[in-house]
Amino acid sequence: GGRVDVKTRIKRRLQIWVCALLATGCLLARAQNPSTRPILIAVDATHAAQKILHSELQIPASPGPLTLYYPKWLPADHSPDGPISNLAGLKFFSKGKELPWQQDDVDMYAFHLEVPAGADSIDIHLDFLLSAPGATIDFSASGSSKLLILMWHEVLLYPAGLPADQITFEPTLRLPAGWKFNTALPISSRAGDTIKFAPVALDLLVDSPVQSGEFTKVISLTGDDKVLHEIDVVADDAWALEISQELIDKYKSLVREAGALYQSRHYRDYHFLLTLSDNTIGLGQEHHESSDDRVPERTLVDPSKRLLAAGLFPHEFTHSWNGQFRRPVGLATPDFQQPMKGELLWVYEGLTTYLGTVLTARSGLWTPAETREYLATVASALDHRAGRRWRSLQNTSNAAQILYFAPSEWSSYRRTTDFYAESVLIWLEADVTIRKQTQGRRSLDDFCRAFLGGPSDGPTVKTYTFDELISELTAITPFDWRTFFRDRLQSVSSHAPLGGITGAGWRLVYNDEPNVLLAADQDASGKGDFTASIGLVAKADGSIEDSVPGMAASQAGLSPYMKIIGVNGNQFSVDDLKRAIQASKSNAAPITIISSNTGSMETHAIPYHDGLRSPHLQRVDEERDYLNDILKPLTSSAEGTR
Fold it and tell me: In 3D, which of 464, 501, 223 has the Cα closest to residue 383?
C-alpha cells in the first residue's frame, strides 16, 4: 500500500476503537434490553382432562413499573372476548421472591407491578380453566378427557408498549403421556411428551393453535405443487377418524380449486385442524397456516351433518387469503388490546363466505343443485328479516362485537351477524355484474387474483381500505362500485338484495317441496324452520327461537321464549306443526297453538292458509345461466353432479 502519515494512522485507529466500543455497547444493550430478548413460555397440559392448563412464563424486564396484558381483542373473533374470567392462580416472582400486583380497575386485561432493582426478568405462573360447551359462545370449551386444542392467547401475558410482531416467544408444551399433536408451528426439538417450538413472534404464536389428543390421524392432501396440505384429525373415539376416500378426494379438489382461483399461497404449509367431538365448542376459525374446525363427532358419518358442514373447510381456507393476508385496516391492530373496527367485515367475512360457497361447489363438496338450495335458504331468511327496516347491513358489520354474543332468539327483528350471509348475495351480484359488463371475459375470479394474490411466501398481513377495494374492482371492470356497495350496505329496505340471483338467470320461489338444506338442518338439530310460512322457528322441545314481526305467528301472539305445548289438539312435535301448516291449505279453520308463557298457558289461533312454503331457485330460461358459469370447476379433475 501507499505511505500513510502518522496523523492518519492515529485517526484510523481511533475510528476502529470507537466502532468496536459501539459494537460492544450494542451487544450489551441487546443483552440488557428486555425488548430484544425472547419471552419463555412453558405450558403443561398434562391435566387437560381435569380441565386445567398450567403455564410458566419468564418475561425479560427492567427495574421499575411494568404493565402486562392478557390478550383481549383476538383477530379471528373481531371482539374483545379474551377469556380472562378463566384465568386463575396468577402469581409473579423475581429473584425467588413473590411480587405484589394490581389488576387495572378500568382495563381488566391489564396487570401492573413493580420490577425490583437488580432484576432483569420476572417469572409468572398462571392457570387456565377449560370449560364445557354451553348455551353461549365460550372458546374455553376446547378440550375433553381425550383431546385438547391449545390456543396460546389463553395461557400468556405480554408486555405493553411493543407491537405483537416485535415480541418473540420461545414456546414449550408438555402433553399427557402418549398424546400426539398437530400444528403449523415449526418444531425445534422433542423429548418424550415435551415439544419445544422454534422462536416465533407473538402475533404468529397466537395465530397457531396446537391440536393434540389420544386419537389422531393425518390425511395428506398435497398435490402436484408439492406444498404440504393436510387434514389433521383428532377425536374422542378412534372410529370417528375414518374418513371416506370419496370425501378425501373432494378435499384434495378443494386445494386444487383454491390454487386455481387465487394463484398464490400465503403460507409455508397448511393444516386443516379438524376436531370431531361433542365436548368442545362448535367452531370454524381462521389462521394464516391452519384452520381450527370443530364439529360434532358424527359429522362425517351423518349425511345431514356432513351436508351442513360442507362449506366449513372452503370458508376457513379462503381466510388464509382474505382476512389473514389481506386484512382491513380497522382489523389489523398492532397488539391485542387496541379496539378493532368491523366496518369492512362484509369483505373480510362476507366475501369469504361467498368464495367459500363457490369453492364448495367447484370442489364437489356440494353439487350445483345443493348450492342453489343453500342460496335459496340465504335469500329467503334475509328477505324475512324484520330488522332490516331499522338496521342496515353496514350496521351489523360495525356492531359485530356485540351481535356475535346475542342469543338466537329475536334474530329476525334484532338482526344478527348478517354480513356473513347477506354479503353472499351482494358479492354474487358483483360477480354477475362483472361478467355482464365484460361480456363474460372477466369475473370476480380476476379480482381475487389481483386483490388476494401476490408473492407466494410465508404469512404476512397486507392491509386495505374501502377506497383501495373500490380501486382494485374498478381496475378489473370500470363501474360505479362505490354506489353499488353503499346502496346495498346502507339500505333499510324490507327486502334482501336479490339482484345477483335474478341477474344470474334464476329467481327465488316457494313451494311445498322440502329444501334440502332446511331438511338437513331439521334432521341434524330437530329444529323446525317455518320462517317463509308462518314466520316461526321452533326448537325440538317446542321452545320458540324466533317469531318474525308482521307475520302470522307473531300476529297471533307467539314470540321467542314461549314454548309450544300443543298443535291442533295434539301434543307438540316439529312434524305435527309441519303437518298442521301443510293442512292449512285445505282447512278453513285456523291453526291452534297452545303455549306456555313463563308458566301461563295461552291459546293462539293462526289464520294461515298458504301451506308449507320452502325456498328454492327456479331457472329463468330466457336469461343466461351465469350461476352455472360461476360454480363450474376451474380444474379438470374437479367434478360435480348437477
Answer: 501
Question: Over the stretch 490-503, which tens digit does the pLDDT of each residue have?
Answer: 999 999 999 999 99
Q: Is residue 28's pLDDT more than 70?
A: no
Instruction: Please write the tens of the pLDDT for every residue from 176-197.
Output: 999 999 999 999 999 999 999 9
Q: How far is CA 624 from CA 44, 353, 437, 540, 592, in A?
A: 60, 24, 14, 42, 46
Calculate what percentage of the chain has a pLDDT beyond 70: 94
CA 94 vs. chain centroid, Å, equals 39
Q: pLDDT-based confidence at 29, cuts 50/70/90?
A: very low
Which of 371, 459, 377, 499 is closest to 165 using CA atoms?
459
According to the 3-state scheme, what is the secondary structure of 334-394?
Answer: CCCCCCCCCCCHHHHCHHHHHHHHHHHHHCCCCCHHHHHHHHHHHHHHHHCCHHHHCCCHH
Give helix then strand counts, H and E, for the chain: 20, 34
Please name which of 283, 563, 551, 536 lies closest in space to residue 410, comparing C-alpha atoms: 536
> Scanning the structure block, which residue is given the C-alpha cell 466502532?
19
CA pair distance 75, 323, nearest whole angstrom: 9
Rounded Cα distance between 526 and 516, Å, is 15
pTM for the predicted model, two decimal places: 0.93
* β partners of residue 538: 528, 544
